[in-house]
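Structure in, sequence out. Go:
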C-alpha cells in the first residue's frame, strides 16, 4: 500500500515539475512569439485598445490621430490628409506599421520607457494607455505646394526640401501616393487585400521615392564634380578656364561624350561658371577623368553619400559607381553610368553648399511630447559632414546663381529673391524618356530652404521646355515660394 502511494506521489511530483517547466517555457521563451502570433485575437484587440499619440506637422496640422469608437475596437487610426503625408506618416495596419508609425511606434503606443510614469497614472485612474505625440519638421505649406506641383506634372516623382542650417526636412513628397486609412482598418481581409493591390501596382505607390530608391542624377551631379575640381586646387575659382571640346574623346571606346544635342560649348575653352550655366558635358567629363575615380568618390562621400543614414526611416545609399575605366569615370562625373543618387542625397548636396560647405544630418522628428503636452525629447541638429571649404561653397553658390539667372534654370527665378540651382536631365534605359532633375536653394545669401526635385520620365528628348529646367525647376520654385512667402 505504501509503495503504491509513493509511486503515485512521485508521479504527481513529476507531472507538477513538467507543468512548471512548461509554464516557464511559455512565459520566458515563447511569450513573445505567442504574443506576436497572428492567431492571437487578444493581441489583435489590445492593439486598438491604446490611444496612439498624434502625429503633427509644423506643430499645428494633425496628420494622424486615434479616434475613440463604441465598437469592439476602442480606438481607430485616422489620417485627415492621408495622401498628402502618406510616405511620411506611413500606416498602422492590424499587424504592422510603416514610416513614422513604425520608427516611433514605442512612443506612439505608449510602451516606451519614457512613458512609464504616464502608464502608471493611467493604470491607477483606469484610463486607456495613451501614447506620446510626434511633431514633425514638415512645413505644411511646403508639403502641399510640393504635392500639388508634382501632381500637376502628371508624372511619377519625388520632392524633398531641407532647412540647410539645421537639417530639418521641410517637405517629403513621393508620387504616386496612397491612402493610409485603407491599410489601417480592422478588417484584415480588406486591409491585406488592398495592400497586395498596391504592392503589385506597376507605378509603385508604396515606394517612398525620396529615400528608398536611387536614380542617375544627370547634370545636377556636375556641382559635385565642380566641387572636387575646386577643392583639388585652392587657386581655382568660378572663372578658371577649362577645356570644353564639342565632343570628348573617351579612351578605349568608340562611344565618345558629346554635349547635350551635340552642341558646342563656347569656343573650346570656357570658364567653369559658363560650363555650369550651359550644363556642358565635355568639361565635366574631362575633369572627372583628370581627377580620377578615387577623388570623385571621396568628394561625394564628403557630401554624406554612402554613410548609414536614418531620418528616422532608413535611407538607401547613394553611390558614384564601381571603379572601372576612364570612360566610365567621365560618364559618372556628369551623373550617368553607374552613378545613383536618392533625391534626399541631392537635396543634402544643395543644402551643404548653401550652408557654407557643412552638411547637417537630415531629420523628420522635431519634438516628442507626452499626452499632457510636456516635452519628452526635442531635435538637436548635428553636423553630418564637412563637404567643402566655405570658399569653395561660395564659388559654387556664385555659379549656381548664374545657372538660374543666365543659364538653364530661368524658370526657377523668384522676383526679389536670389535663387541658386542646377538642372539635370538623366538618361535611363534605351527607349525610355529621361528623368528631369533640379536642385536649388534660396535666398542664396541667407538660405532658408534647399530642395531636390526628380520627375521620373519627365523630360522628352528634343530640348525646349521638356528638360530639368522646364519640368522640375517650376516645381522647386513653387515649394521655395511657399517657404519664403
Amino acid at each position: 500500500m505504501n509503495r503504491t502511494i509513493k509511486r503515485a506521489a512521485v508521479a504527481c511530483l513529476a507531472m507538477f515539475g513538467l507543468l512548471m517547466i512548461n509554464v516557464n517555457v511559455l512565459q520566458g521563451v515563447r511569450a513573445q512569439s505567442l504574443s506576436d502570433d497572428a492567431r492571437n485575437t487578444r493581441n489583435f484587440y489590445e492593439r486598438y485598445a491604446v490611444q496612439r499619440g498624434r502625429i503633427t506637422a509644423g506643430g499645428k496640422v494633425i496628420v494622424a490621430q486615434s479616434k475613440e469608437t463604441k465598437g469592439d475596437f476602442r480606438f481607430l487610426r485616422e489620417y485627415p490628409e492621408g495622401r498628402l503625408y502618406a510616405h511620411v506618416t506611413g500606416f498602422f495596419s492590424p499587424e504592422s506599421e510603416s514610416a513614422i508609425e513604425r520608427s516611433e511606434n514605442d512612443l506612439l503606443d505608449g510602451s516606451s520607457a519614457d512613458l512609464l510614469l504616464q502608464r502608471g497614472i493611467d493604470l491607477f485612474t483606469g484610463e486607456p494607455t495613451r501614447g506620446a505625440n510626434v511633431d514633425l519638421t514638415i512645413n505644411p505649406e511646403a508639403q502641399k505646394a510640393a504635392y500639388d506641383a508634382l501632381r500637376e506634372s502628371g508624372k511619377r516623382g519625388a520632392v524633398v526640401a531641407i532647412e540647410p542650417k539645421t537639417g530639418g526636412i521641410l517637405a517629403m513628397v513621393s508620387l504616386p501616393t496612397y491612402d493610409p486609412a485603407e491599410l489601417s482598418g480592422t478588417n484584415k481581409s480588406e486591409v491585406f487585400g488592398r495592400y497586395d493591390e498596391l504592392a503589385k501596382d506597376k507605378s509603385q505607390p508604396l515606394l517612398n521615392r525620396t529615400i528608398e530608391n536611387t536614380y542617375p542624377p544627370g547634370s545636377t551631379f556636375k556641382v559635385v564634380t565642380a566641387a572636387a575640381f575646386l577643392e583639388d586646387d585652392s587657386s581655382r575659382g568660378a572663372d578658371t578656364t577649362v577645356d570644353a571640346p564639342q565632343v570628348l574623346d573617351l579612351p578605349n571606346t568608340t562611344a565618345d561624350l558629346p554635349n547635350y544635342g551635340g552642341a558646342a560649348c563656347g569656343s573650346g575653352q570656357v570658364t567653369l561658371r559658363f560650363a555650369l550655366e550651359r550644363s556642358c558635358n565635355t568639361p565635366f567629363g574631362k575633369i572627372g577623368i583628370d581627377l580620377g575615380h578615387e577623388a570623385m568618390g571621396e568628394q561625394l562621400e564628403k557630401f554624406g553619400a554612402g554613410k548609414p543614414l536614418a531620418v528616422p526611416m532608413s535611407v538607401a545609399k547613394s553611390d558614384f559607381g564601381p571603379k572601372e575605366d576612364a570612360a566610365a569615370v567621365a560618364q559618372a562625373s556628369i551623373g550617368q553610368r553607374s552613378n545613383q543618387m536618392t533625391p534626399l542625397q541631392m537635396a543634402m548636396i544643395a543644402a551643404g553648399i548653401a550652408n557654407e560647405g557643412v552638411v547637417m544630418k537630415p531629420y523628420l522628428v522635431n519634438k516628442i511630447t507626452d499626452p499632457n503636452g510636456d516635452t519628452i525629447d526635442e531635435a538637436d541638429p548635428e553636423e553630418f559632414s564637412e563637404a567643402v571649404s566655405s570658399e569653395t561653397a561660395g564659388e559654387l553658390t556664385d555659379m549656381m546663381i548664374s545657372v538660374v539667372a543666365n543659364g538653364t534654370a530661368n524658370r526657377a527665378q523668384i522676383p526679389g529673391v536670389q535663387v541658386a540651382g542646377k538642372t539635370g536631365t538623366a538618361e535611363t534605359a534605351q527607349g525610355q524618356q529621361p528623368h528631369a532633375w533640379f536642385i536649388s536653394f534660396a535666398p542664396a545669401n541667407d538660405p532658408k530652404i534647399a530642395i531636390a526635385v526628380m520627375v521620373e520620365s519627365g523630360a522628352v528628348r528634343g530640348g525646349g521646355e521638356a528638360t530639368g529646367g522646364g519640368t522640375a525647376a517650376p516645381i522647386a520654385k513653387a515649394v521655395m515660394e511657399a517657404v519664403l512667402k
